[in-house]
Amino acid sequence: MKKRLLIIVSIVLVLGVVGVGAVWLLNHKDHDADVLVMRGDDCNIDWSRAYGGNPSNINPELARRLCLLAEQTGTRIIPNAGFRTSDEQWQLGEEMLRSTEGRVMGYYRDENGAVRDSQGRLMAEAPGDSQHETGDAVDVNRDGRDGHFYSREELARAGLTNQNTNRSSVYGPGNPALKKSEPWHVTLDIDNTE
Ligand SMILES: [Zn+2]
User: Fold this and answer.
1) CB pairs under 8 A, 24+ apart, for 55-58?
2) Which of 12, 34, 66, 136 measures 20 to 30 Å from 160, CA to CA?
3) CA of 69 to the centre of ligand 1 (A)
4) 79 alpha carbon to ligand 1 midpoint, in Å?
5) Is the dihedral of CA 123, 124, 125, 126 positive or negative?
6) Could you read off the pLDDT of 156-177 as tens digits, one per residue?
7) What is the whole-number distance in angstroms between the Cα of residue 157 and the centre of ligand 1?
């Protein structure tokens, strides 16, 4: 009798261990799938509206985080600008100078080549000074809709920011209004790059 009881207990124990193991494996597999979905390395960034000849030539980590932003917010990423060459940076300034707004607002090129309005606010960086020339910035509206922007919180969750985080030269203590607000200008959040 004792032997039979031992066998039954053993079988129950083995089944229990196998069952727990199977449940753990299933959960583990699901967990991995979630991580995979939220890693942000696969999405379609729609560059069809973006300025310049090769706008998608951006920092791969910036692209990855934009995909993460798309996943987390359920929106499409449709940038108006990404990478641009120094020539394109100059041309963009020329277009701004020639535009109706540029003429009405008294846009001019300063001694460094940047475009400013009549109050001295920076409208376009000088060639060589724009984050777009290194592929480190993307101009993007929320879900591609004019006048809609991702919030600071949404961007922060994806390791991104639309705030000036390293602009001491432009954003000097003597003149905090030098740079216009650009809620569409999205870069890596340098606090989250590590
Ligand atoms: Zn920009």
Assistant:
1) 55/79, 55/81, 55/82, 55/83, 55/84, 56/82, 56/83, 57/82, 57/83, 57/135, 58/82, 58/83, 58/135, 58/136, 58/138
2) 34
3) 17
4) 10
5) negative
6) 999 999 887 655 544 443 343 4
7) 20
Measured in angstroms, how far is the CA atom of residue 125 from the centroid of ligand 1? Answer: 9
**What's the 82 CA to ligand 1 centre distance in angstroms?**
8
Task: Encode burial over 82-96: b for 16+ CB neighbours within 10 A, e otherwise.
Answer: bbbeeebbbebbeeb
Ligand 1 midpoint to CA 183 (Å): 9
**Same domain flag for 22 and 48:** no
Report CA(5)–ligand 1 centroid distance (Å).
75
Q: Six-digit token pair at 177?
A: 């209004």
Q: Do 14 and 97 belong to one domain?
A: no
Predicted confidence (pLDDT) per residue in 97-129, tens digit? 999 999 999 999 999 999 999 988 888 989 998
The pairing of strands 122-124 and 115-116 is: antiparallel
Same domain, 46 and 90: yes
The C-alpha atoms of residue 134 and residue 143 are separated, in whole angstroms, by 24
Q: Are residues 14 and 102 in the same domain?
A: no
Q: How many whole angstroms from 121 Cα to the centroid of ligand 1?
A: 15
